[in-house]
Amino acid sequence: MLSCAASIVLIILNLVSLALSGPLDWAKAAVELPWARADRIPLDVNLPWLPFENETRCYGEIGCLNITREWYHLIHRPFNVFPLPRNVINTRFILYTEENPTDGQLLVAEEKDTILNSNFRPDRLTKFIIHGFIDTPLSTWVSEMKTELLKYSSQNQVIVVDWGSGSLPLYTQAVANTRLVGLELAYLIKKLRDEHNLNPEDVHLIGHSLGSHLAAYAAERVPGIGRITGLDPAEPMFQSMPEFVRLDPSDAKFVDVIHTDARSLFLLEIPGYGMSQACGHLDFYPNNGKEMPGCSLSQESSALIPLTLIKDGIEEASRVLLACNHVRAIKLFTDSINGKCPYVAHRCPSYQHFVDGKCFKCNSGNCALMGYHAQMPYSYSQYNSSENDVIPSESYPPIAPVQGKYFLTTGKDPHYCQRHYRFIIELAKPVMAEKWVQGFLSAGIFTERGKNMRNLDLTPKGTQRFEHGKSYMIVITNPNDVGDKINKVELNWSHEMNVLEPRNLCIFWCNDHLYVKSVTVDMMEMPSREKRELEKSNKLCPKQQEYADIKSLGRMLFYDKCKQQQS
User: Fold this and answer.
1) Of the residues 89, 156, 299, 547, which has the fewest C-beta atoms closer than 10 A?
2) Do residues 368 and 361 make contact, with C-beta atoms less than 8 angstroms apart?
C-alpha cells in the first residue's frame, strides 16, 4: 500500500495539472506516464477521484454504463462522474426531410406512432447532426448544415440530436452526459432498424467536438454503422485515452475526421479544444490543423466580430471570438457538401513537407477529398449503399485513398476551398551569377482560354535566399481554377538588400540578377476515370534561351514546350 505521503503527492500532481488547464482543457498534451494510468495503481490505494471498485448504473431499456479504472488517467482524464438523469438531459431527435425542410418532426423511440406519422423513410440516407459542448440545435451552423444536406439530395433525411440540457457546464459533467446520450441515440437507431427497416450502413453520424465522441458511443452499440464524421473532436479528457473512451476507426465502417484546433500546450502553443491525435480512417489537417486563416485576433477576424454580431447574433459572434478555429471544421464540412471547389488533401509525413511540395501528385491513393465527399479507403463499391450519395464519377480517384493523415491549405474567407499549385523553380548557374541572391519572387499564370492568375506570391514568408544552380519548390493556393493547360508563366524578381548583412549589399560590386532555367507548375487534382492520362504538369522555359536573366524589379516570360524551343 502506498504511504500517506505518496498519496498526497499524487493528489498534488493531479491538482497542479488541473490548475494549469483552461476552462475546457485538462492539462493538455501531457506525455504518457506509466504511473499515471489508473489501472496500474494498486487496488488497495485509496485515492479520492478513483472508484474503489467497478460502478454500474442502468437506465431502463436504453442500457447500462459503468465506470472502471480504465476510464481514468491522472493527467488526461483525472475525474469521471455518471451522467445526469435522463429526464434532466431530455435528449430529443428532430427529423427534417424534403417534405419538411424547416419544420422538424419529433421522433420518440418508445412511441412508434411518432415515427410512423413522420416523413421518415428507411430507404433514404439518414444523416444525424450532433452538437457539442455549450451548444444547441438552435445554433446557426446546425440549420446551415441541415439545409445543405437536404439540398444535395432528396435521398437525404436529417435527424438533429438535441442534448442541449446536457451540454452545459461543467465540462466534466457534459463529458459524462455524452455516454448517456450515446445510449439514447443507439436505442433510436436500433428501433429504426428493427421496427422500421433502417439499414445501419445508410446511417451517417456527424458530430462536432463532444458530439464526435458521442457518435462513437452510439455506433459501438449498433453494429454496421456506415460512417462517422468527427468535426474537430474534443481533446480534453479524450486525447491519449483508450479507444473505447473516444472516437476511433473501429466505431464505423468509415470514420473521417477534420482537425482544426489541435494546438498543444506541450508545444508551448495556446491550447486548442480539438484533438491532434489521429482517430479515424482518414484524418484531415487543414492548415496543419491548428491555426485557421482569419481566426487570429490580430488578423481580420477581429473586424468580423461586429458584422457577425449584427448578422447572426451574439452567439455566432462569440464563436468567432472564442472558438473560431474549433468551429472552422463545421464550416469546412458544410461548404464541402454543395461547393464546386473540391477540398483535395494529400497524405504526407507532415504539413511542412506538404507546403514544401515534397508530396503533391495524386497517385497511388495519396490524395483524398475532405468533407462530405470523403471516400472510405477501400473501394468504390463499398463507399455507400446508394448511388445518390456519392460525388459525381468524374471526380473519383482511380485508386481509393490510403488510411492516414492528410494535409491541405484553406482560405480565410467563405468559401474556404483553395486550389493548390506547386511551383518548381530551377535556377541556372552562369559564370556571372552570384552564388546566391536574396529577394522576393512572384508569378503570373496564363492559359490558352484566358483563365489567368496574376500576383501569385512565391515567397510568402518574406524575403528568401536563392542559391544559383539549385531548384526550389513551393505550394501556393488560390481560389481560382485555371482549368486549361498552362502555356505561359511570368516571373517577377525583386532583389532585397539588408544593411544588417554586409554580404547581401549589392551596389557596385555584386550582381543582383536571378538566373532561371525553367519553371514547372503542377496542379493538385484528383485523378478521374475519364481523364487518367491527362498531364497536369507544365514545364516552361524562356523563349529560345538556355536560361532567363531577370534583373531586380524585372520580369521574364516562360513558355510551354521547352524541348522544341531549345532544339
Assistant:
1) 299
2) no
State the catalytic residues. Answer: 209, 232, 326
Q: Which residue has the cell 522555359?
A: 541
pLDDT at 377 over 60: yes
- Residues 426, 395 share a domain: no
pTM of the model: 0.84
Q: What are the grid coordinates assigned to 413, written together?
A: 474567407
**Total structural domains in the chain?**
3
Give the whole-angstrom CA distance, residue 11 versus residue 139: 39
- Is 514 a domain residue? yes
Of 48, 71, 94, the one marking the end of a domain is 71
Length, in residues, of the chain: 567
C-alpha 99 chain-centroid distance: 32
* CB crowding 206-226: b at 16 or more within 10 Å, else e: bbbbbbbbbbbbbbbbbeebb
> Which pLDDT tens digit goes with each residue over 248-279?
999 999 999 999 998 765 554 566 799 999 99
Same domain? For 15 and 46 the reply is yes
Domain region containing 36: 4-71
Among 18, 40, 71, residue at a domain's last position: 71
Tell me the pLDDT of the chain averaged across its residues.
Answer: 82
Nearest-angstrom CA–CA distance, 201 and 188: 15
Q: What CATH number did the domain enclosing 434 receive?
A: 2.60.60.20
pLDDT at 165: 94
What is the helix (H) or strand (E) element at residue 423, kind and residue range? strand 419-427
Instruction: Give Cα separations from 289 to 156, 239, 257, 386 (angstroms).
Output: 29, 15, 11, 31
Element (H, E) at 305: helix 301-312
Instruction: Flag whether 80 is in a domain.
Output: no
Q: Is the pLDDT of residue 40 over 90?
A: no
Whether residues 438 and 555 share a domain: the answer is: yes
Residues 370 and 443 in one domain: no
